[in-house]
Amino acid sequence: MCTLALLGLAGTALSVGGALVEGQQSKQMANYQAKAYEQQAQADAQQAAFDQTQERHKQDLLQAQARAQAGASGVGIAGSPTEVLAANARQGQLELKTIQYGSQLRQNNLNTQAAISRFQGKQAVTASIFKAGERLSVRLQLPAQTPTNWQLRLSSSRTLHSPNSMRAPHKPLHRRAH
User: Fold this and answer.
1) Which of 3, 75, 104, 115 has the fewest CB atoms below 10 angstroms from its CB?
2) CA gap 42, 38 in Å, rounded
3) What are the C-alpha distances in Å from 96 to residues 90, 109, 139, 151?
4) How far is the C-alpha of 84 from the C-alpha of 106, rounded, in Å?
5) What residues in the chain have per-residue pLDDT under 70?
């Protein structure tokens, strides 16, 4: 009889513990996702640095080629060729800044997603605490059932619904004396 009460308490403990574990697992998953976002942001920063280096190299080659063409044509570097070279340099700087700006936007987005993921993990832990508390409070609100009450309910439900309860009352047989 005490076994049933212990089983009930064990079930409640498992239910409460399960809710808490679920929250912790959700938090761990959210933290893992946040780390993945941060790693993506770091990879994007590295890719942007590489792209900028490539663009600088490309711009340097274009500038050198433009100076060589101007020199080969016999035109002096002063005047119009200088303005073209300066315009090319400004355009190259603009392209470098565009690469950097795009990368920064992507990194900000990924870092924001990481922060949101961590926040959701914390919320999952809080929700699991409330869920565990709810399960515990439901269990505590149930009327205390002593084995006697439980047995009475069980025996009355069996009597009311058993096949024998549908039969006519049994009359005892009396034997006659000879």
Assistant:
1) 3
2) 6
3) 10, 20, 65, 82
4) 33
5) 1-2, 4-9, 75-79, 142-178
